[in-house]
Amino acid sequence: MPTKIGLIFGISGIAAAGLGALADATSIEHVFNWCAFLPLLGIITILLPRMKHT
Predict the structure, then answer these.
(1) Second label for 15, Cα 20 to 30 Å away, from 24, 29, 38, 51?
(2) pLDDT tens track of the chain, all 54 residues?
(3) Is 52 among the domain residues?
(4) What span, in angstroms and rounded, lies between the C-alpha atoms of 5 and 9?
(5) Does residue 53 form part of some domain?
């Protein structure tokens, strides 16, 4: 993953704008509650099958 730093910054910038729009449309508490479960998605990715390089 260290070679994809630019991609990570780009995705996080888009996500920050999206979460800001969601906070404006709903409430900041709603966004905080939603963000509290985001690390769970990272943990779940461990269960994904590994793809073989061809």
Answers:
(1) 51
(2) 567 889 889 999 999 999 999 999 999 999 999 999 989 988 998 888 888 877
(3) no
(4) 6
(5) no
